[in-house]
Amino acid sequence: MLKICPAGDGVRGSCVLSQLCVLFLLHSQKYFSDFIEKYGFEDMYSGGFYPLESLEEHWAYWSRYILINRYMDCDNGTYQKLFELVKDKDYFVLTTNVDHQFQKAGFDKQRLFYTQGDYGLFQCSEPCHRTTYDNEEVVREMLKQQKDMKIPTALIPHCPVCGKPMTMNLRADDTFVQDDGWYRAAERYSEFLRRHKETKMLLLELGVGMNTPGIIKYPFWQMAAQNPNAYYVSINAGGSLCTGRNQGEGYLCEWGYWGGYLPMSLTLLYGMGII
To answer: What span, in angstroms and rounded, lies between the C-alpha atoms of 245 and 248?
Structure first.
């Protein structure tokens, strides 16, 4: 059982920051110069957690953030190349990405599990119910009508059930909504693992750091250790990290980089007969 592990955290600590920092640099002057001047933001990720002065200002910032990360075409070719590699194979993608780039590149929605949410969805901030809502229409309206770093008060999204403010469907604490679609995707992922439990499998891990290792990295280590037919490959920009135990098990740790900046926490599972 060979494990190739060019792993570790990416640029600036994790690949989520790497990708968002790249996008921030590309779009900072056009979309964020006013927020940079007022608050000194250095990357989109940090700015998203900053306690802004009002909900009007909060959604002015987030509408720009959502546009760039969810609705603009930001793929540098990486996702398309990846899709070409797997499109005719029995694959499944487990990801903590929330930017929808996989579906844009042509990946089958039924073979994707976004564990951490979606920039394209709102949820109740309470939450009073377990439903998510598409946000593209209102986000584009926020962009169109905002002025002086604020959206009109009338555009602040509120829960249609309890009336409290809406928030992003992103896992940050125990208020994250796992809706019906989330549970259906989780079941499809579990079924894929059941079907391939003892078959020949490639566990391909791209850009997974140590921010949330319990979702992808640690389970992959466990599956690779339990299945003698599994190959675990971890690729990232940065230091290597793997779990070699016995010399005879054939662990190989290397440095590696895969063209362009890596998408954060991308995981592909190839089914039997691929390797």
So the answer is: 9
124 strand-pairing partners: 166
- Reading the block at residue 256, the tokens are 């590696």
Report yes or no: 204 and 269 within 8 Å, Cβ to Cβ: yes
Mean pLDDT of the chain: 81
Q: Does domain 3-13+75-117+178-270 have CATH number 3.90.660?
A: no
Contact 70, 120 (CB under 8 A): yes
218 Cβ neighbours under 8 A, 6+ residues apart: none
Instruction: Assign 209 a pLDDT band (cuts: 50, 70, 90).
Output: confident
Predicted TM-score (pTM) of the model is 0.80
Determine if the peptide bond prior to 127 is cis (ω within 30°): yes
The β-bridge partners of 173 are none
The 10 Å Cβ neighbour count of residue 201 is: 25
Residue 205, classed as helix, strand or coil, is strand
The number of residues in the chain equals 275
| Residue 166 near residue 157, CB atoms below 8 Å | yes
Give Dmax over CA atoms of the chain in angstroms: 65
Each residue of 99-109: pLDDT tens digit? 999 999 999 99
Asked if the model's pLDDT at residue 13 lies above 60, the reply is no
